[in-house]
Amino acid sequence: MLKAVHHIAIICSDYEVSKKFYTETLGLAIIREVYREQRDSYKLDLSLNGHYIIELFSFPNPPKRPSQPESCGLRHLAFVVENVEAEKERMEGLGVSVEIIRTDEFTGKKFTFIQDPDGLPIEFYESN
């Protein structure tokens, strides 16, 4: 029986750029960072509010992930925020392009999207 999501693994094309984005822009905390010489790859374990959530990997020359138009596979990563407008303003203040705020037709909750440095869609979904 499933209990919870343990983590999400993301492969990036530029490790330092993505590390900065996930830690400084999104504010995730570093649990550990390991360089795996046999794979010529970094693995960065990140947490949100003390909960292990993302493994960020760097591999030499990974193929691009098609995000637009949407394709089969992982569609996006969504984070709960208290206030979508405030998060949009914070992201824009950091130079991140943010989509218009929309309202979920089924729940009435506000949401918006940004993209990580490799174009992976990231959603901010309002909790209130």
From TrEMBL:
<dbReference type="InterPro" id="IPR004360">
    <property type="entry name" value="Glyas_Fos-R_dOase_dom"/>
</dbReference>
<protein>
    <submittedName>
        <fullName>VOC family protein</fullName>
    </submittedName>
</protein>
<dbReference type="GO" id="GO:0046872">
    <property type="term" value="F:metal ion binding"/>
</dbReference>
<feature type="domain" description="VOC">
    <location>
        <begin position="4"/>
        <end position="127"/>
    </location>
</feature>
<dbReference type="InterPro" id="IPR029068">
    <property type="entry name" value="Glyas_Bleomycin-R_OHBP_Dase"/>
</dbReference>
<dbReference type="InterPro" id="IPR037478">
    <property type="entry name" value="YwkD-like_dom"/>
</dbReference>
<keyword id="KW-0479">Metal-binding</keyword>
<dbReference type="Pfam" id="PF00903">
    <property type="entry name" value="Glyoxalase"/>
</dbReference>
<dbReference type="InterPro" id="IPR051332">
    <property type="entry name" value="Fosfomycin_Res_Enzymes"/>
</dbReference>
<dbReference type="InterPro" id="IPR037523">
    <property type="entry name" value="VOC_core"/>
</dbReference>
